[in-house]
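Notes from the 1:1 (GR / supervisor)

We went over the backlog. Supervisor wanted to see one worked example end to end before approving the batch request, so GR pasted a single chain during the call. The sequence is below; no edits were made to it. Supervisor asked that the structure be written out right there so they could see what the output format looks like.
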Amino acid sequence: MLPILEKLSQSETQRKKRARAIILTPTRELALQVNQSIEAYAQHLPLKSMAMFGGVDYAPQKQALIDGVDIVVATPGRLIDLYGQRAIHFDELEVLVLDEADKMLDMGFIEAINKIIARVPEDAQNLLFSATLSNPVRELAKSAIRDPEEISITKHSASKSNIKQWIVTVDKDMKSSLLSHMLQTNDWKQALIFIETKHGAAKLVSQLEKRGIVAEAFHSGRNQKVRQQLIESFKAGEIQYLVATGVARVVSILKTYLWLLTMTYHTLPMNMCIASVVQVVLKRWVRRYPWSLKTTSRTFA
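Structure output shown during the call:
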């Protein structure tokens, strides 16, 4: 981000409804986080930024563009929507950043991303960041970036030797009781518990409450204001246990935490920057992703 701020600080946006840098993110929470970072880094620079995402009224975002901004951090859907309403134009754009490109593709944003790329000036600098380089991501990179330079971190060097893992095989109907036992018998100041569905998150919170464990559910069924407050409260230590859907979304916001439990069959990336992690996964997950056992682990019957 700092090189972009340095570049943009040398001039200013010439007209309303324009931006000189656009950063695309997969989620509104990440858009807010990135914009907060920009505001902190650029507090002594003559630059304005804004977060743009769906699920909220158009009017404040349109007004911010009219008032003038240099940097827009946006989700692809809302950005192309406002572009279609002629609320924003790309003719002064100098930098386009695709952040967490793999997640944006997973969430079905490829059409919106391609529309945006097609309207970016040819002399703009395009940057793409992705935790993985699957074939779809590589294809996107070919269309989005001219003469790209690839910077990769090997799988071996990305693995953290201080990540602790437990693999627990357990029947489905015993998961909540096992989780309760682990929370009650371990000295974990906080736990971030991932689950597959929002219904499952609400049910698990209820099951934990019956066993005297207070937890909060974080999922798409709760409105943006509530979700943001939950994140802030968890970061501040006011919430001890957070049951959430969407691993990448929450981890990208929290960045660091003490203990992580995952109660789904989904793969958990092994290269996340986490100080100490306890990973609880199910037998089906292990059978499907045997490579995850390459690091030292212990299995409990």
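Supervisor's comment: Confidence is low (pLDDT under 50) at residues 264-301.
Batch request approved.
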